Amino acid sequence: MMAVTRGFVGRRAADSSRVPPGQYVTKGFPVLSAGPTPYTPLDAWDFTIRGAVEHPVSWSWTEFQELPRQKFTVDIHCVTKWTKLDVPWSGVSLDTFLDTVPTQAAYALAFSDGGYTTNVPLADLRGGKAWVVDEYDGRPLDPEHGGPARLLVPHLYFWKSAKWIRGLDLRTADQPGFWEMFGYHNYGDPWKEQRYYGD
Ligand SMILES: Nc1nc2c(c(=O)[nH]1)N[C@H]1C(S)=C(S)[C@@H](COP(=O)(O)O)O[C@H]1N2
Ligand SMILES: [Mo]
Asked: Which residues form the signal peptide (predicted)?
């Protein structure tokens, strides 16, 4: 009998419209790191906004924990072509940090323990589109996945979501980060397949 429930058809249609061109859906959570996993003790951790600001501002781990947080579920898209749907996170909106730091800057270079950097226009970190997350699936974020805390910018390819995030260097001029200097696209919109320089 050709019985297909509306729910099943509806969900399939919804899922394929959530997968950007050239991507496939994976149930796993691959680990992609350009170097060794750093282990920074929480009492030595802070999140700093510096650069084109009047005064750099830092939040200790304790202060970060006291900020208003959000639990949310988003899809993530890696440039190596896997997409993971419905990934549950908890963390602090970048708006919460940026709203306290006046700046004329239009760009941010995120920096991490271990030396990784990635550049994102400041507008892409504002408006509820980006977070510093420290929980995945209700548990502290694994070190391999960027714990204690990583940047999450789910509307861009996942290399923009810097693991082991320590802060943002605000810039009036754009400066390419680690992968952007090695030929990845400067912006990285998965829906436009902006994988590499020139895409
Ligand atoms: N600090 C740091 N952040 C990073 C990376 C890295 O090598 N170092 N790799 C990036 C890339 S290319 C991807 S696809 C994702 C992978 O995150 P995951 O290992 O949690 O899947 O992290 C991004 N953030
Ligand atoms: Mo990646």
From this structure: none
